[in-house]
Amino acid sequence: MNVDLLFKIAGVGIMVAVLHQVLAKAGREDQAMMTTLAGLVIVLTMVIKEINTLFNTVKTMFNL
After folding, report:
1. Mean pLDDT, to the nearest integer, of 56-60?
2. Measured between alpha carbons, how far is 14 from 31 in angstroms, rounded to an integer?
3. CA of 35: how far to CAs of 4, 31, 40, in Å?
4. What is the distance, to the nearest Å, from the Cα of residue 48 to the centroid of all Cα atoms in its chain?
5. What SS3 class is residue 63?
6. Given this model, what pLDDT does residue 1 score?
7. Assessment of whether the complete model's pTM goes beyond 0.70
8. In angstroms, rounded to a whole number, what is the distance separating the alpha carbons of residues 43 and 58?
């Protein structure tokens, strides 16, 4: 597993957390929630790409 992926996920998490807090304090709860959902989608996309790579590696390893 690549350590860069963990740093990217942590960076997205920190940015989303800060944006959520700023928007929530400004009274824009709906935009704060949408920011959180967008961050979740971004992270899930990155993780799904890695899972796809894992499955392809396993298929190649076992000649499936």
Report:
1. 94
2. 17
3. 23, 6, 9
4. 9
5. coil
6. 61
7. yes
8. 23
